[in-house]
Amino acid sequence: MRNEYAADLGLSETDLAADWHTQFGRWFADAVAYPLPEPNAMVVGTADADGRPSGRTVLLKGYDPEGFIFFTNYGSRKGAEAAANPWVSLVFPWFPMQRQVVVAGRVERVGRAETEAYFAGRPRGSQLGAWASTQSSVVPDRAALDAAYRAAAERFAGVEPIPAPPHWGGLRVRPETVEFWQGRAGRLHDRLRFRRTDAGDWVVERLAP
Q1: Under a CB-based contact definition with an 8 Å cutoff, are residues 189 and 183 in contact?
Q2: I need a surface site. Which of 75, 110, 129, 150 has the fewest CB within 10 A?
Q3: Tens digit of each residue's pLDDT (9 = 90 or more) over 36-63
Q4: What separation, in Å, do the N-terminal and C-terminal C-alpha atoms of the chain show?
């Protein structure tokens, strides 16, 4: 189960873009072109107010110099934990390319207009699912979930567009660190991290593998 990474790959300081979001854009484009299945899939790690962690895979829906955006039910486990403890992590596991991107930062809700604009572009089935599912809550069986979906479909029959639920919206992770990890032979991986300083500027650091 142990794979040796290629000897001719690497990541040097001179390879990096001037800022993390430009560098992420380069690697994300590489992941799309590779092609990887769902290259925007990322593992989101949150913790509750007592520090108990949890993780799950979600889809990145946007990024810019301000951070990384995904959407969720605010009442879900990740939504509740993000409200109680705003420190989160993201991992993009691009292992077929022998790469990872690891992000740590604080999460905040996006503006309601941004949520509504994104929701309007979702497939209708996904819109109904957002209304039907009380995400992360216990349900008695699949039949109850299907019944909730049918009820949502009946409620919004003939309604176009379906409005975004008030309990559903976007979260933006504003990074404090963004690490670019490139696998290397002998487990001497390259790890270059952009870190925001207390003064608000960014420095690049090499981490030991």
Answers
A1: yes
A2: 150
A3: 999 999 999 999 999 999 999 999 999 9
A4: 20
CA–CA separation, 91 vs 24, rounded Å? 12
The vertex-118 CA angle with 116 and 123, nearest 5°, equals: 110
Predicted confidence (pLDDT) per residue in 88-135, tens digit: 999 999 999 999 999 999 999 999 999 999 999 999 999 999 999 999
Under the phi-then-psi rule, with left for phi > 0, alpha for psi from -120 to 50, and beta for the rest, what region is 38?
Answer: left
Q: 3-state DSSP call for residue 83?
A: helix
- In one-letter notation, the amino acid at residue 194 is F
Q: Coil, strand or helix: which one is 153?
A: helix
Burial (0-12, 13-18, 19+ Cβ within 10 Å), 143: exposed
Length of the chain: 209
What span, in angstroms and rounded, lies between the C-alpha atoms of 152 and 132?
6
Rounded to two decimals, the pTM is 0.93
Count of beta carbons in the 10 Å neighbourhood of residue 187: 10
**How far apart (Å, rounded) are the C-alpha atoms in residues 45 and 183?**
22
Helix, strand, or coil (residue 22): helix
Backbone angles phi, psi at 118, to 5 degrees: -70, -45
Cα→Cα distances 57→54, 76, 92, 157, 188, Å:
11, 14, 10, 31, 27
Q: Active-site residues: which are they?
A: 187
